[in-house]
């Protein structure tokens, strides 16, 4: 393996460009990952390994979690073209900050932050929460207030921008605040509303020409999502100065529904990390305790919604990047079914794993946003020809507190394996709430390759890592060769690692994915939703390297954060993270609810019921 890595490095980067130590380290990492992948391949696929390949006629293709054959094809290599209009290319004059340090020099700071000792969970810290009459107001309540004339869109937008200016000094959640653009849009919304009241129509796309479902609602975008005329940095020096020529499909749909875009939020570099702490921007702080992480990679979106600054923000999710910050910051986070929402105009990480979705203050708001975002897009070949209707009604039904007839599969093994006591207690309490509201709880095995079990989290997460490494490495290959020094060492190493993976192992990961998705579908046929903790730990402290599970060895925090979320990107099914408690440490704790493909309605119904049982997070 070492000689293979050396020869490929010389071919890609030139002789002598990579030190022997780096080659040995890369070879060792690859050997470990590939050995595990091949072992799982033999265990799970056995004799069928050579036969599955990418043949749409193979039975395995027809048995993913409710996904039609054409969608399952898009989960594989077919998704690699078309949706990523955003490219990792610097501006013609070169990126700002170029030459300020090589990837190796920047990496030193990363390494220092990653080796802080782990002490008691809750470090002393200060909360940062929005105040005033708009704090905690939902998107639905805002739309109704505008419709009834109780407040104006420009008035609300100014109030939001003032709070952002004050509170983001501590949170560091925004990369760009588009104040002038937002105020101009807000004034147009007020004019549209005035015309509608006079009987002229034109207020969004609501029924009868009335206010649209997000009319006047302030929304932020993760800084992977293009907004015309505004930089999309993807959290990296590589794209500093890159300005989007056109808006992403999801942005156009938000604006058509009446939303007001107020800015771009911080992301982990190219979304390849779970802490949103980068040399380019620095760390995003958790609003519940500024000494703790907001999670990632959509950490900026999680922080602004968690602080009550905005009712809604958009994120992306490749291994949990919507759900991790949602859990860490006490917000709702929804990863839709793969193919439900267009990713055109969004900087990709891994085309067969990437999802776009909302982080919101309430389940009803997440439902409202998904109804707006969902639908086919010819510019993203992975999207399916179906819209999402009735989701707000499903959330309302759940909020009534009746889950009679809902069969809930409990991934008990996931909830016992290296779980922090605070999370364990919150999860147990959530199960009691579900049962009290009439849900039937069924324990589901999730530890091995057995046909009756949901696939083990470790197997699914390994497949996720291999696919992300290979696809991310392929996407960034040319830019790494030109601007390798502008990446942080952490992310550069990951993308370079992906370039050394063999095609046979990438195909093996996709074959494993197909078979594991089939087995997941068999489990989902027996229950309406699955539940597990979103994270095994509360939000980690900034720079925390490891945590110490009881009776086990120390676990790296980045691995812990994705351990229970990454599996569902492999299966492609919809997943909702809902905060269920504030733990003794003063940090939010969450449960994730996974459903059958394209059945976000049931997921939202169960989530809204838990939200009702929990009560307000802020006393």
Sum this structure up briefly.
By secondary structure, the chain is α+β, with helices and mostly antiparallel strands.
Which properties best describe this structure?
single chain; 619 residues; alpha+beta; Amidase signature (AS) enzymes; 2 domains; 21 helices; 17 strands; 12% strand; globular
Binned, the helix content reads 40-55%
What is the count of distinct domains? 2
Mean pLDDT: 86
The first-level CATH class name of the largest domain: Alpha Beta
| Rg computed from alpha carbons, rounded to a whole number of angstroms | 23 Å
Going by CATH, the homologous superfamily of the largest domain would be: Amidase signature (AS) domain
Low-pLDDT segments, ≥5 res: 47-66, 68-72, 76-82, 85-119
Helix count equals 21
Q: Tell me the CATH topology of the largest domain.
A: Amidase signature (AS) enzymes
Give the overall shape, derived from the CA principal axes: globular
Number of strands: 17
Distance N to C terminus: 57 Å
| Biggest pleated sheet | 11 strands, mixed
InterPro entries: Amidase, Amidase_CS, Amidase_dom, AS_sf
Domain Amidase: 155-604
Protein name: Amidase, Asp-tRNAAsn/Glu-tRNAGln amidotransferase A subunit
Region (Disordered): 78-120
Write the layout of secondary structure elements.
Elements (H helix, E strand, L loop, with lengths): L1 H12 L6 H25 L4 H4 L16 H6 L28 H11 L25 H9 L5 H19 L2 E4 L1 H19 L20 E5 L26 H8 L3 E6 L11 E2 L3 E2 L1 E2 L2 E5 L5 H8 L5 E6 L5 H7 L2 E4 L19 E6 L2 H11 L17 H9 L7 E4 L1 H5 L4 H16 L3 E4 L13 H27 L5 H11 L3 H22 L4 E5 L12 E2 L7 E2 H6 L4 H5 L3 E8 L5 E8 L4 H15 L5
InterPro entries: Amidase (IPR000120), Amidase_CS (IPR020556), Amidase_dom (IPR023631), AS_sf (IPR036928)
Pfam family, one: Amidase
GO molecular function: transferase activity
């Amino acid at each position: 393996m070492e000689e293979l890595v050396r020869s490929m490095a010389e071919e890609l980067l030139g002789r002598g460009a990579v030190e022997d130590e780096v080659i040995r380290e890369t070879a060792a990492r690859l050997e470990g990952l590939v050995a595990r992948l091949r072992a799982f391949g033999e265990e799970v696929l056995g004799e069928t390994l050579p036969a599955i390949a990418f043949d749409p006629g193979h039975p395995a293709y027809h048995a993913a979690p409710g996904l039609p054959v054409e969608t399952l094809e898009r989960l594989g290599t077919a998704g690699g073209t078309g949706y990523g209009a955003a490219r990792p290319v610097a501006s013609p004059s070169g990126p700002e900050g170029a030459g300020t340090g090589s990837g190796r020099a920047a990496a030193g700071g990363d390494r220092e932050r990653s080796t802080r000792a782990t002490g008691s969970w809750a470090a002393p810290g200060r909360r940062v929460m929005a105040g005033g009459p708009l704090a905690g107001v939902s998107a639905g309540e805002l739309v109704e207030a505008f419709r009834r004339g109780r407040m104006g869109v420009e008035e609300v937008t100014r109030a939001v921008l003032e709070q952002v200016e004050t509170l983001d000094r501590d949170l560091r959640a925004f990369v760009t605040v588009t104040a002038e653009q937002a105020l101009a849009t807000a004034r147009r919304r007020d004019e549209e509303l005035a015309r509608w009241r006079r009987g002229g129509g034109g207020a969004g796309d609501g029924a009868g020409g009335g206010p649209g479902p997000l009319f006047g609602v302030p929304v932020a975008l993760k800084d992977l999502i293009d907004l015309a005329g505004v930089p999309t940095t993807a959290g990296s020096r590589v794209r500093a100065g890159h300005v989007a020529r056109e808006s992403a499909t999801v942005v156009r749909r938000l604006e058509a529904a009446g939303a007001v875009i107020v800015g771009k939020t911080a992301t982990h570099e190219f979304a390849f990390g779970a802490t949103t702490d980068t040399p380019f921007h620095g760390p995003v702080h958790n609003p519940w305790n500024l000494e703790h992480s907001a999670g990632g990679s959509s950490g900026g979106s999680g922080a602004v919604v968690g602080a009550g600054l905005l009712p809604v923000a958009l994120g992306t999710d490749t291994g949990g990047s919507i759900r991790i910050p949602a859990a860490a910051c006490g917000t709702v986070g929804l990863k839709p079914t793969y193919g439900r929402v267009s990713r055109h105009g969004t900087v990709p990480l891994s085309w067969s794993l990437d999802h776009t979705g909302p982080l919101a203050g309430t389940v009803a708001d997440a439902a409202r946003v998904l109804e707006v975002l969902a639908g086919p897009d010819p510019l993203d070949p992975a999207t399916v020809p179906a819209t999402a209707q009735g989701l707000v009604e499903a959330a309302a039904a759940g909020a009534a507190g009746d889950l009679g007839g809902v069969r809930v599969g409990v991934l008990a093994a996931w909830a016992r394996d290296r779980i922090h006591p605070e999370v364990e207690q919150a999860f147990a309490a959530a199960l009691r709430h579900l049962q009290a509201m009439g849900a039937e709880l069924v324990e589901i095995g999730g530890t091995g390759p057995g046909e009756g079990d949901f696939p083990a989290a470790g197997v699914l997460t390994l497949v996720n890592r291999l696919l992300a490494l290979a696809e991310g490495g392929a996407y960034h290959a040319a830019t790494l060769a030109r601007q390798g020094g502008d990446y942080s060492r952490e992310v550069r190493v990951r993308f370079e690692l992906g370039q050394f993976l063999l095609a046979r192992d990438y195909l093996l990961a996709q074959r494993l994915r197909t078979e594991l998705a089939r087995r997941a579908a068999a489990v989902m046929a027996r229950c309406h939703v699955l539940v597990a903790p979103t994270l095994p730990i509360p939000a980690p402290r900034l720079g925390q390297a490891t945590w110490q599970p009881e009776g086990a060895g120390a676990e790296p925090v980045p691995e812990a954060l994705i351990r229970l979320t990454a599996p569902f990107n492999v299966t492609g099914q919809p997943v909702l993270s809902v905060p269920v408690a504030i733990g003794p440490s003063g940090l939010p704790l969450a449960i994730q609810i996974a459903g059958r493909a394209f059945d976000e309605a049931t997921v939202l119904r169960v989530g809204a019921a838990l939200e009702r049982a929990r009560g307000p997070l802020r006393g």
